[in-house]
Amino acid sequence: MTVSRTQSTFAPPVMEARRWLEGVAFTDDLPLINVSQAAPVDPPPAQLRAEIARVATDVPEAHLYGPVLGLPELRAEVAAQWSAAYSGDVAPEEVAITSGCNQAFCATLSSIAAEGDEIILPTPWYFNHKMWLDMQGIRTVALSTGDDLLPDPDKAAALITARTRAIVLVTPNNPGGVEYPAALVRAFFELARAHGLKLIIDETYRDFDARTGAPHDLFTDLNWGDTLVQLYSFSKAYRLTGHRVGAMVADQGFLAEAQKFLDTVTICPNQLGQYAALWGMQNLSQWLAGERAEILDRRAAIADNMYKLADKGWRLLGAGAYFAYVEHPFAMRSDALAKALVRDHHVLCLPGTMFMPEDDPAAALGIRIAFANVNRAEIGVLFDRLASADYPRRA
Q: Could you tell me the pTM of the whole model?
């Protein structure tokens, strides 16, 4: 029987996890702690919502088709801010605005790979990346990482074949939370360049990087566009998840290929969302700095509370941006543990089995905690509940 494109991959993990809540009775004494999804649950700040309302009323063209590659003003703003932030040279023509970062990834892969080609993804991977590759008939080549969750360029080099088209990095990482050192990113860039591949770097969470200054120096390379495709999302920075606004930074010729995909799928990105992103970039830098400070404090709260779990045999493998990735001590697969935590401790998180190949032993051990929507006090309660989990342990 013929298998359709969608049948070739798994169900959306976040939606799957929500089904685990069915039949569980949460109480005031033990309410649900949901650390399964990283998307902000609060709306944009009031001043940004006011701007969206103003544009909706006063800018008639915001309700019409716009340019396929996005508003020229927003493309120019991204180019200017990226050039300054990365000490490089990014032109407006090298920026495309997309309907979210996921679409930027889909457009990128559609522009470089065909059925039967191969893409290298470090594990644990972002599940939507794997899903898209499955649905396109593109082979995902898993690049295993160690306890530090950092991919090894030498191991990646050994995986390159004649069908390899790109290497994908996500930094700060989803699901691992780790921030890839600039030297590591540069090493992957040189590896991709040497083999004529694209290096796709998803920097959705760049606004919440704990480091100051540029996270890498790739845009200082005069010929960065021959190798690099950078992806970004405005959703996390300005709480614009429902407006679906992302960006792709790449060589102008590459964007001409991506434009074919974008025109076919959505014709143009959301107009109101683009105006909102532009206004946010120009007016909300101090507000965003406050958001970053809050996320960094929650990251610190993870470290501050980890002693409660370390005594029970848990290990913290990575923490940063919106995520912590931990290894559990129990003699059960992570998917079974995640379901048990909902039932017994009213904690909803995602298991490592959703971020790795099924036959990878590490998949059974990992748990992702998305802490963007739980404050410091709630993180303390979360760790208390995890510490109270008492299941048979691994030998």
A: 0.95
